[in-house]
């Protein structure tokens, strides 16, 4: 099995020189030690930097790690209001390095992995949150017909589909019985709202999946589109609200217990109001369902990461094991959200 931590740079260079205009080897590759899904490498070449994202080798869950979908959606968004990196080429021949991969622009920006955003002024912090809201609304305002993404997700009720999908994914990677997760799955299945919007959704929208310009608050690129599809936009919004309920720090990356007002960070209610204004919406009903769903899906994702670590093909094994221990907590928080 190919190692997720290394890359056959000679094979990549040979393929890229044949498929990307102006690409010249040799390559030096450095793996980004973030993310738990598709291993990502910075490529240093004589003609400049690039970024490569690959599907992990080994036995994978069905439909997971779809780098071809990441490449397609970001290519489609190139001329929209959604900031994305430029896509160069997609390789769907696993014989090249052992799994599919694509090469994209290395965006020059700063990554913020702490939603408290230390070391900036309150004004800049507030501006970054306003920008997060603007970009989220831009994603949900994309004309999917015009950009060729109308078939990017199947028809039907998005949440019904997602609850079914992530229940199957969770069961496929289940390592212990978690009563709260069983209860959350049952509650979500019994409370699915009617489908009333069909939009592009990112699937994992949060501050550490964005790159911001080196100075100022503008977003330079939204990253990590693996979970994107056509579905209900409130799933993205709820994912943010869910993330902010996590503990602050390197693991939780949340805002639990943080005095937001003193830092210029909007409350959940204020952020939802900003979002509704940006999309000209009167308000959002059933918000507790969407947040409960966000906790459920994250528990399913983390369970899959944990199982891959146990199987020996996680992108960051040590962190994957730590994250896996949090699945019962996510399930419990999901039930708390379900109960209002």
From TrEMBL:
Residues 29-251 form the Aminoglycoside phosphotransferase domain. InterPro entries: ACAD10-like, ACAD10_11_N, Aminoglycoside_PTrfase. PANTHER family: AMINOGLYCOSIDE PHOSPHOTRANSFERASE DOMAIN-CONTAINING PROTEIN, HYDROLASE, PUTATIVE (AFU_ORTHOLOGUE AFUA_1G12880)-RELATED. This is Phosphotransferase family protein. It comes from Maritimibacter dapengensis.
């Amino acid at each position: 099995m190919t190692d997720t931590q290394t890359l056959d740079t000679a094979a990549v260079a040979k393929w890229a020189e044949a498929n990307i205009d102006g690409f010249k080897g040799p390559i030096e590759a450095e793996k980004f030690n973030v993310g738990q899904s598709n291993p990502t490498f910075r490529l240093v070449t004589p003609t400049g930097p690039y970024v490569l994202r690959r599907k992990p080798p080994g036995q994978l869950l069905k439909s997971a790690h779809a780098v071809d979908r990441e490449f397609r959606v970001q290519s489609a968004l190139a001329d929209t209001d959604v900031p994305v990196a430029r896509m160069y080429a997609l390789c769907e021949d696993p014989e090249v390095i052992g799994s599919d991969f694509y090469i994209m622009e290395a965006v020059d920006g700063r990554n913020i992995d702490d939603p408290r955003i230390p070391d900036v002024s309150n004004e800049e912090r507030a501006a970054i949150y306003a920008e997060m809201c603007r970009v989220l609304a831009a994603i949900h305002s994309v004309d999917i017909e015009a950009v060729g993404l109308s078939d990017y997700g199947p028809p039907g009720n998005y949440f019904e589909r997602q609850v079914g999908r992530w229940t199957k994914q969770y069961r496929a990677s289940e390592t212990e019985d978690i009563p709260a997760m069983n209860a959350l799955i049952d509650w979500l299945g019994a409370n699915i709202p009617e489908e009333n919007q069909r939009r592009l959704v990112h699937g994992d929208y949060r501050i550490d999946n964005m790159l911001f310009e080196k100075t100022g608050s503008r977003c330079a690129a939204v990253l990590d589109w693996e979970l994107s599809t056509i579905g209900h936009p409130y799933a993205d919004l709820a994912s943010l609200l869910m993330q902010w309920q996590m503990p602050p720090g390197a693991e939780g990356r949340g805002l639990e217990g943080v005095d937001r007002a003193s830092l210029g960070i909007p409350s959940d209610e204020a952020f939802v109001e900003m979002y509704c204004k940006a999309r000209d919406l009167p308000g959002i009903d059933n918000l507790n369902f969407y947040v409960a769903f966000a906790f459920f899906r994250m528990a399913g994702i983390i369970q899959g990461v944990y199982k891959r670590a146990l199987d020996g093909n996680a992108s960051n094994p040590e962190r994957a094991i730590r994250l896996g221990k949090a699945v019962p907590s996510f399930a419990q928080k999901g039930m708390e959200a379900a109960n209002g």
